[in-house]
Amino acid sequence: MASQDASSSLSPNNYFVVIRRINSNKNTFFQVSLKPYRQVILLIEPSNKSELVSYPIRDIVQEAKKLEKQGIKMIYLNIGDPAPFGFRPPQHILDAAAEALKQNYSGYAPSEGDPELRKTVAEYEKVAPEDVFITAGLSEGIDFLFQALVDPGRNILLPIPTYPLYLTKERISYGTVDFYDCDASFEPDLDSIRKNITKYTRAILVINPNNPTGAVYSRKTLQGILDIAGEHKLPIISDDVYDQMVFDGEMTHMRDICKDVPVVCGNSLSKNYIYPGARVGYLAFHGEGWDKMKDAVQRLCNQRLSVNWEMQRAYIAAIKGSHDHIHKFNAELKIRRDLLVKRVKGIDGLSTAPPRGAFYSFINVEGPWKNDTEFVRGLLKEGVVVVPGSGFAPKMDGKHFRLVFLPKPEQLESAFDRIAEYMKDK
Ligand SMILES: Cc1ncc(COP(=O)(O)O)c(C=O)c1O
């Protein structure tokens, strides 16, 4: 009886095959192993795909919270959310959301978006309402673009450094992650774009103004990218989520100069209108050749039913209403930017190109640290939370960190005092 049991537990029916993808720097390996079925009951395995998901901007918070419990008071400079720093959405936008709830905008909205919002965005973007799709923040728009464009082995050519959501989406599409470099002032390097386009490239991503660098690209660079896209018959994805937050120099929109190159622009209520919690954004398709993509995006909209309706109504009020807040916000950001530039200059081992838009700085750090993660972990113990640059730039030099300069000037000063102290004896 006992031997019968033993042999039956060895039967192939009692085992299942686990295939794990392992990415090293250069290669992808597949590890194949057998596991007894019993283990499935005891330990529920997440999918291989889910292991490719990370978000370094928030991941670092868990470590910070642990240290906070030990009594270290933290200054959080990791998340690009103006709300904790006292910035509020304009009142007329909040009123429009409240009014929409009173008027019973509580059902599912049309999947592709409230018709009036699509029309309002279309006027702003100078496209037809049918070219606009409302999404749950631009984050969902980015997800839809990857789902609609990128099959396994294909890719969207990303800038390095880049906003981490693009990295995760590329990875979970089983895309081949390819990057183009930026120069010392964080402007895209046109030769690098040319070199890194392959037969697997489906589109080129441009984030302008940029997260994580705060760069605002020159018209000449944007024109250069358009020329390359035109030569290779590739569309451009233009992430414009910070397009009104420029406090130094001119903002040129891809959409205004793209002529016959197809461009899809993404934007949201989150940054320009200081309302990230609203979770409303859009994709606007410019130019020819998008019909099948628009059909795919429509289906992606349908399967998730709709976006919060009252917040869509708030977005209408935002675009149509006063934009006074943005001038005040930019003036505040410029004060903080100037302070940041002065403090970075004054600390041995730190350097950066001054940000001209958004509210991020990507700072180079030279010192004895093995890599930027080690630097950031050490800084956590001094009570400052920033994000390791490698989260934005896996193939760069590992010598950067990203800092959000939204806090009040005195708090920012105090963060830099701590950084200076931390670096002094190194
Ligand atoms: C460059 C960039 N794109 C897109 C997003 C997503 O923004 P949301 O989903 O809030 O619209 C962010 C958020 O920080 C961002 O920095």
Task: Describe the model.
With about 425 residues, this protein is α/β, with parallel strands linked by helices. It folds into three domains: about 1-45, no CATH class; about 55-85 and about 325-425, Aspartate Aminotransferase, domain 1; about 90-320, Aspartate Aminotransferase, domain 2, CATH 3.40.640. It has 15 helices and 15 strands. It has helices at about 1-10, 35-40, 55-70, 90-100, 115-125, 135-150, 165-170, 190-195, 220-230, 255, 290-305, 310-320, 325-345, 370-380, 410-425, and strands at about 15-25, 30-35, 75, 130-135, 155-160, 180, 200-205, 235-240, 265-270, 280-285, 350, 360-365, 385, 385-390, 400-405. A seven-stranded mixed sheet has the order 4-10-9-8-7-5-6, sandwiched between helices. A four-stranded antiparallel sheet has the order 11-12-15-14. Helix 10 links the parallel strand 8 (about 235-240) and strand 9. Pyridoxal-5'-phosphate binds near residues 163, 239 and 270.
